[in-house]
User: What shape does this take?
Amino acid sequence: MKTEYPTKYYDNLNEFQEAQLILHNYQKTHNIIRNDYLNLIELTFESQNDQKVFNTLYRACLRELFSLIESDLFNLNRLDSYLNYSDKDKFMIKFKKTFKQISKTWEKEHIQKNYFDSKLELLKDIKTERDKITHPKGPKDFKTTTIEDFNRFKMAFDEYDGFINKIMNGFFIGMKDYPVN
Assistant: This one.
């Protein structure tokens, strides 16, 4: 079965319907979190002249970025998990393995490679900053946020957002031997 877009095919109607539901729920969940997140980013930017509010909202942005990504990883693995997938895998291992698997299945390796080669380091840096505020060891883990910090984080979000949109464009599922004769 050759289609214009690479497609993951399921063997029977039940598996296909389950995959449809997972994909539908994934898209709805992603869009809800993303829209909330875009509002949070806007509120954070608008609060830059109130340092206390800016710091608080910036930290919320850091946490929520990884909530969005974790949700994406969980649901993409429900559609096409990597070998020995565990939701308990460390974030960066899960991130890399998930997108390598998804990119292989849907023939988007070039998109995954480009992101990993040029954008992943910034996401790792932002994750380290997020980890400090999520699991603080002391007051030094909380810094005064600058507009440069915000712009750097915003760039990491924009790059991930572009990446996930490219991955999901032309993302199809199907059923083997459908329609049944």
